[in-house]
Amino acid sequence: MLKSRGSGNRNDGQIVSESSSVWTPVRPKGMVPIPSGSFVLGQTDYDFTKTNDAPVKTVTVSGFFMDDTEITNSEYKYFVNYVKDSIARTALADKAESLGFDPLNQNPGGDDGIGAYAYISGSEDGEGTPYDEYMRQVNTGRDGQNPINDRRLNKKIPLEWDKYKYPDIDYAEAMEGLYYPPEERMNGQRTIDTRKLNYSYVTVDQDAAIKRKGTFRVDFRKEFNLNIYPDTTVWVRDFNYSYNDPMHQDYFWHKAYADYPVVGINWNQATAFCDFRTRYHNDALARKSKKGKAVKVISYRLPTEIEWEYAAKGGLENAPYPWGGPYLTDDRGCYLANFKPKRGDYLEINDGKKTGYMYTAPIKTFRPNGYGLYDMAGNVAEWTSSPYNRSTYTMSSSLNPSISGVEKKKSVRGGSWKDVGYLLMISSRDWEHKDSARSFVGFRTVQSYPEGSKVNYRRTK
């Protein structure tokens, strides 16, 4: 509605801005705010490798929210379970449609069998609308089928996973297709076929849009469909002649590792998780708000390499490590991160009594930096959104530095449990191929917020 200056809601023909004070950023759970600021980017301490791929440069970075820990196994399972739920409901809806259940005429939930899981209209009550009928006619003439663009899955009806409680034989047939076939089962165990846990989403090809490589919007549309289940074999594949089979068998799914950082995730999967987290948050807000009143969140994403380095410093200047430095232990001789302290020694032995961690450690085991971020050094290295290039720091702008591109190498920062102390230094740069999953690489997400937003910053001693 147009507003007029000094006239309340009366329209007197004058246009005024809607006050932005009605919206303030809400700190997402598990995230901490990183204030905007300038800092000295690059290698300010010893360059033991003599690569000099991080020359010193002063840059300015906008503020953002950042996960205070790496994404854990339990958090990533939200993603896996969401996809598992979606493919089950899609299989049931497709089966119901093949049996003649019409989403335009069916009463949602009015059938005790598979009909209750049929597609429903995108309308608020799930019933068919004139728009649905119009889209049916348009698409029928186009491809001979009857897809309804605005239809959706009926998520109000709970799924039944107990095979002995399936409501009818059609339901059983649709659900059985989600599991490994009998000839592929181990010891007769009926488990979900993880090869079918695929997530689809669409983004804009910004590079193509900037370069005007296209005329229509569809020319800049990038559609992804990828498997999102972690590669649990990384524990065996990454280390030849090491007995890591227990980690391969238990690390992702066992409850004992719920608060450990997820690994075996490649860059594409980490990016898909960001899209899921945005969609999941927006869906929750839409359910809680009044019709048409939901305000979408700013998208979650991976941090740029420069944002990661800025956040890792925790507000300290010329600090080689997130806790300052120059040592890897505190004044009591206790190690400050999870890493490989000595040749052949992967345990951080503290005061002769408490043993360290051979592999990853639970989140928040070690102290946070000044911004309240845990494990910005050690535990697992972390994916960033930035492509890796040795000349990145030289080529990038001094204002919110970022390098775009489609390089297969992506920057990985922070060092990990299997790395020596040098790779824990804030300015140490590393990379992995974007389609590679590792037992020592995880990720955390960020969310931007507008400059000048009212955000409470807290510094940790």
From TrEMBL:
The keyword Lipoprotein applies. It holds the Pfam family FGE-sulfatase. InterPro entries: CTDL_fold (IPR016187), Glid_motil-assoc_lipo_GldK (IPR019866), Sulfatase_Mod_Factor_Kinase (IPR051043), SUMF_dom (IPR005532), SUMF_sf (IPR042095). SUPFAM superfamilies: C-type lectin-like. Residues 29-446 form the Sulfatase-modifying factor enzyme-like domain. Residues 1-22 are annotated as: Disordered. Keywords: Lipoprotein. NCBIfam families: GldK. This is Gliding motility lipoprotein GldK. It comes from Chishuiella changwenlii.
